[in-house]
Amino acid sequence: MLHLQSSEHETENKTGHCTKVVRSANMENLRSGYLFPEISLREYEHSQKYPNAKIIKLGIGDTTEPIPDCIASAMAKQATALSTVEGYSGYGDEQGNKALRKRIAEMLYGNMGIKGEEVFVSDGAQCDISRLQMLLGPNVTVAVQDPSFPAYIDSSVIFGRAGDLQGQNGKYERIVYMKCTPDNDFFPDLSITPRTDIIFFCSPNNPTGTAASAAQLRRLVDFATANGSIIVFDSSYAAYISDGSPTSIYQIPGAKQVAIEISSFSKFAGFTGVRLGWTVVPEELSYSNGFQIIKDYDRIVCTCFNGASNIVQAGGLACLSAEGLQAISRVVKSYQENAKILTEAFRGLGMEVYGGQNAPYLWVHFPGSSSWEIFAEILEKTHIVTIPGRGFGPGGEAYIRVSSFGHRETILEASQRLTNLRTLNIN
Q1: Could you give phi then psi for residue 103, rounded to 5 degrees?
Q2: Domain assignment of residue 39, given as a range
Q3: Which of 82, 231, 209 is nearest to 147 (CA)?
Q4: How far is CA 382 from CA 23, 181, 414, in A?
Q5: Which residues pair with 231 in a beta bridge?
Q6: Which residues are in the Aminotransferase class I/classII large domain (predicted)?
Q7: Pairwise CA distance, residues 318 & 106, whole Å
Q8: Around 37, how many Cα atoms within 13 Å sit in the side-chain half-sphere?
C-alpha cells in the first residue's frame, strides 16, 4: 500500500517540462518512504479524524524533558559572546573543538585507549552513518541486524550496495539480514552469517531495546577479525545501560582494529533538535593495503562538513562536566522509570515485552499479528502513537516499538489507556 501511495504521489507531481537528467536507479530502488515521516503522516491523518483527541506520542524517539539549565546556559553564554569582538568566532575545525574531542575521549572512553584525535565531532549519528557510507565506496557488502534502524539499510540502498528489493520478503538481495529474536537473545547467530565487508551493529539496540553482553560482543569482534570486516557500532543509547553491559565496542580487546563507533548527544542530553554527535575512528583501523582509514575519514569530513556549531559544542562540553553529567543522569533515570511503567501496562495485557531496561524503547510482541494493523488499532482505540515493527525490517513483523520519552503525567495517562484495552480484546 505504501509503495502504491508513493507511486501515485510521484505521478501527480510530474510537470510539463522534464530535464534530460536520469533519476538515480538507487533512489528508484528505495522503499516508498522513510519510516518516521510516514508515522508523522499517519498521526496527522488521525488528528484530522479526531480533532478533539489528545494524542500521546510514544512513536518517534524524540526526547521531551528540557535540557538541563547548566547545559542550556553554556550554549546561551556562547551565543551571547558572538555579539562581542572578543567572543566572536567563525569557522572551527571540521573535526570538532579540540577541547570537546579530548573530553569525549577522556570521559566516555577513558580506559579504552581512545585519543581525542580519533574523535570526530558532528551534527549527529544519523548524518555520520551517511558519511561513513560515502567513505566506504560503492562495492562493499553490508550486514545489518534484523530488525534494524532504517538508516543503515536506506543509506546502503542510496549508495548502490543493496541490490533489488525482493517483494516477497521485503529484503534487499545483496544485504545480509542477521536475524535477532527472543530465541537467540536478540544476538545474531554468527556461525551461519556470511562474511560481509561492513557489519552495522547497534547496542543498546534500536528498535529492540536490548544490549549485547561482553561475551556477545567478544564473539562479534572475533567474527569481524577472522573475516577482515569492519563493524560500524552505534552506541547512541549507551547512557541507558543499567546492567553492566558494555557501553562501547572498544571495551572489547582488539576492537580498535576492526570497529568504528558512532554516537550522539541526542538521546541522553536532549539534543534531538540541537544536533551533536561524534564518530570514533581508531588509528589502528586500516584497509586491506594497510592505509589508515582515519585519514580518509578526515578527508570526507573536511570535504562534506564545515564542523558542528560552536554554540552547540559549548553545550557538549557542559554535558560532560561534573554538573552536566549529574543533571543528565536524572533525566535518563526519568525515562527509564517511564519504561517500567509502560512495561507493566503491556504485560498487564498479557503481552511479551522486551527491552526497556537498557534503552528507552519497549519491543512488544503480538504473535501472529500484522504490526501495521496493531499500530493502527492502538492508535484508533487509545490515540497513542507507536511504531510498527515491520518498519524496522522483516524481523519486526508482529512487534511494535514503544518509546518511553515523555513527561511522567503523559506516560501515566498512556498506561491507563492501555489498561483499558483489556475489554477491547486487542490481543
Answers
A1: -70, -40
A2: 32-61+325-420
A3: 209
A4: 42, 28, 8
A5: 199, 259
A6: 54-417
A7: 14
A8: 7
Residue 389 is given by DSSP the state G
**pLDDT per residue over 281-332, tens digit each?**
999 999 999 999 999 999 999 999 999 999 999 999 999 999 999 999 999 9
| Structural domain includes residue 344 | yes
Distance CA(50)–CA(385), nearest Å, equals: 13
The strand pair at 142-146 and 175-179 is best described as parallel
Q: Which CATH number goes with the domain that contains 402?
A: 3.90.1150.10
Cβ pair 70, 329 in contact under 8 A: no
- φ, ψ of residue 141 to 5 degrees: the values are -100, 155
Q: In Å, how far are 116, 203, 244, 385, 394 from 404, measured between CA atoms?
A: 33, 17, 21, 12, 24
Euclidean distance between CA atoms 407 and 365, whole angstroms: 25
Instruction: Say whether the peptide bond before residue 68 is cis (omega within 30 degrees of 0).
Output: no
Query: In total, how many domains does the chain have?
Result: 2
Mark which of 320, 354, 370 sits at the end of a domain. 320
The pLDDT, as a whole number, for residue 235 is 98
What does the block give as the cell for 333?
533515570
Q: Domain of 229: which CATH number?
A: 3.40.640.10
- Stated as kind and residue range, the H or E segment containing 344 is helix 322-348
Q: Which amino acid type is present at position 198?
A: I
Nearest to 358 by CA among 203, 173, 228, 192: 203
Adjacent-strand bridge partners of 232:
200, 260
As beta bridge partners, residue 384 has 56
Q: Are residues 54 and 201 in the same domain?
A: no
At 7 the pLDDT is 41
* Residue position matching grid coordinates 527491552: 355
pLDDT tens digit sequence for 33-49: 778 888 999 999 999 99
End-to-end CA, the chain: 24
pLDDT less than 70: residues of the chain: 1-15, 32, 422-427
